[in-house]
TrEMBL record:
This is Nuclear transport factor 2 family protein. SUPFAM superfamilies: NTF2-like. InterPro entries: DUF4440, NTF2-like_dom_sf. It holds the Pfam family DUF4440. The keyword Heme does not apply. It comes from Lutimonas vermicola. Residues 28-134 form the DUF4440 domain. It comes from the Bacteria. Residues 1-19 form the signal peptide. Keywords: Signal.
Amino acid sequence: MRILSIAMFLLAISAQSFAQNASIEKEIKELSKAKWQWMADKNVDKLEALFDDRSKFVHMSGSWRKERELEIIETGSIWYKDADVHDVAVEVFGDDTAIVWNRITLTAHVRGNDVTNEFTVTEFYKKEGEDWKLLDLTFSKVRDTHEIEH
């Protein structure tokens, strides 16, 4: 009887953890999707609140911190016109850390030209209080046949 009680307790904890992870996954997917729209809309106010003060951004042409990324978006140096998201994978660590992989076709306006590239974009999020903060966003150029392993 005692073993059955312990097994039931462990099963209940596992189910609760799985449900919590699924909820965090859904929340992070929605936040990531909103981020792409805010970038397209050049909504630096929303992005400023999302990006951690120590966040880093890695692009094909270089890497920089939050202030530079916001400046680039606000001035339109890079205008993320459309991120067509083909696939999303989320991995949750505990209840305060998540990694997102987006496979996208990005149409951006760069140096006076519209360009389209295939990327897998990796995003790291950390929960601070009630809010998720983006710590890192890295673009990796890939072939259009690239798949994210789930």
